[in-house]
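Quick one: structure tokens for this chain, please?
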Amino acid sequence: MSSPFRFKQFAVDQSGAAMKVGTDGVLLGAWCGVENAQDILDIGTGTGVIALMMAQRNSVARVDAIDIDSGAVECAAANFAASPWAARLKVECKAAQSLDGASYDLIVSNPPYFTDSLLCPDPKRTVARHATELTFAELDSAVCRVLNPHAGRFALILPTEQMEAYLAKSALNVVRRCDVTSTPTGAVKRVMVELAVRGCGAVETERLSIYTDTPREYSAEYRELTKEFYLKF
């Protein structure tokens, strides 16, 4: 069994999940706006790390999480139970396509995104990494069904090409965007967005570099964004 990934206020046991804690999930969990949310949903929760970050950042919100991988659900449930916010966290083995009848102020997702690459020999990693069980169209439709239409937001992270493909077909409107690069002069590798039913005029745009131009030296803005979570900061 692998050692838990330890954050400042919680730990994540990753032994039952196909996908481990990664930079994408932590970025999204630290960046998205949680202040006004009472009900939050994490689609494709995996280890539960983003849901745990939501509970840490918002002291009153109820956080639901779903995943279709039963091993991931067991893993997330154990991580939730061991956290300081167990009473506000709930996880279900459920497909996004079946979402209906609820209303969430904030929905977050670090979804599978590979569409045309070779499938992984491990079927659980294929589900976690490839958009075979949850297409972008299905994700967008699910979010639209359960997102609060008045003030709700959907926070999403994807590689640049996949994000542009998603946005081209989404029924939602971008209200906030952050382009993520490895270094200040590097190409955009990831894009984070917040989407809403209604647009807000000018989109709030940001740019974030994970490193400085010095190899493996973390940037000040990345340290600031993640300092409440990573032990190294």
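The radius of gyration is 17 Å.
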